[in-house]
Task: structure prediction
Amino acid sequence: MKDLFGRAILDYQTNNSPEDLLTETSISEEDEMSVSYLFRTHDEMPKIEQHALSLAKGKVLDIGCGAGSHSLYLQKNPDLEVTAIDISIKAIEACKLRGIKDARVHDFMNLEGEKFDTILLLMNGTGICGKLKKLPKFLSQLKSLLSPGGQILIDSSDIIYMFDEDEDGGKWIPSENDYYGEITFNISYKGEKEAPLDWLYLDYNTLQNAAFANGIASELLMEGEHYDYLAKLSH
Result:
């Protein structure tokens, strides 16, 4: 990984001639993404993210924190102890420059020996899982990091709407994927291309069934306007 996403975040934070990120997926054409969006204030966040943040309690782990906007907002609350993690070295550098007290370069799949009351996975939190077949291990690791009575707040979208209907009114879905929410994500920044990234959009029923199979309770907390939703997982 060239860490182009992190580089864009750090360029924006340090005012080092930041440019838009170019994103392209296996089911959508190239699109521009302004890095400034990752630095949004609480008022600028979607309702689903605002609701998730309002539910945070106790010791909080913000997984895939990016530019750290969620953690930055939460750490203003003296009742919360916030840890922000990301695999991007440059993104964590930017988080520290922004004033996040506990920001670490870490892959949460390797995290052990700590427990959290709230685990946040926002901005399509299921994406990090990558593939549907990895979901049981993904959920098992999240469960291992939860304190008794803890909660995982995770959002995603059901992207079935992006596929064409066939003559019978069903959806035509490419057969090379095990599940229609599995996509490949490509990022370009300042003329460089990142290695392709597996990314998972998960419909709520599939998440609920996988959670149940792993001894985790799930609750649909909120649905957005664009097939997106916020769920709470607990055990």
Remarks:
- DSSP finds six helices and twelve strands in the chain.
- The helical segments are 4-13, 47-55, 69-74, 89-98, 135-144, 204-213.
- The longest helix spans residues 4-13.
